[in-house]
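Data card: per-record layout.
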Amino acid sequence: MNILIIGATGLIGRSLVTELETAGYKVIASSRNVEKAREILGNTTEIRHWDGRSSRGLTDILTDIDGIINLAGENIASGIWTKKRKKKISDSRISTGRLVTEAILQMDKKPTFLIQASGIGFYGTHVSIPADESREVGSGFIAGLVAKWEESVSMLHGAGMRVVYLRTGIVLAKNGGMLQKMLLPFRFYAGTILGSGKQMISWIALTDLVRAILHLIENEKAQGPYNLVAPQAVSMKDFTRAIGNTLKKPVWLRLPAYFLRVFMGQMASETILASQVILPTKLLQEGFSFQFENLDKALQDIFNKKSH
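The structure for this 308-residue chain is written out next.
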């Protein structure tokens, strides 16, 4: 099976390429910069040029593709949310989704599935009653963005394709994402709890995330939204202390929510101060087994620490 990955050079994409190639799939990556993508992905992965602006240009590289995984999207937490920044975050997701839809609808022989990146931000930023995939959309910038992101490819449901939305939680990996940002204070023996510490984090180890995507590729009945989170959410306080315990570094500072809102504005409220208890109900019902249900074990694996 030939699978095209859009956004293959990102944190999730790089691991997913390795997972799929190991499982025997032929992986093709689309990229605006073929040379840079080859430096990141190596020479074993086929890379096809797509400028991200033309649906026709994408149609041309889809002729022998059986399935598409669209991971494209600007990092939500890589800069303060100015109006310009918000537009860039939105356009990188919604415009790409629309172009993918247009490209596929132009084809006589369409791919059999599209797996579309999404996020648990769909449910809003304060979810205290555990939410499964049946929960309606919440409120806020991220919730509205994610809803439009999913909607950008929703027409493909009626085009004879299987469409899956990856509502992904906080992805834990050593070399990227939220965890990498939180590690700096620990290097100076100053582990810091962000906000009250009571906000709940729905997380997933990168290893389990790519395994879950493989499961969704191979389960031909999988459709619609899936929550990609570990079964047990944890508080920010416990999350930070678990990092400290794994690295054997103290946690003794707290950065109040007030200061985070002053410096980061709405972005703080909808990211690091967000509290979300999300359940991976559909994955569990389908028999998916998480390798890392326990946060301590996930962190030990990430940092190559042995449990005692």
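Known properties of this structure: The longest strand covers residues 113-119. The domain at 2-169+205-228 is CATH 3.40.50.720 (Rossmann fold).

See the next section for split statistics.
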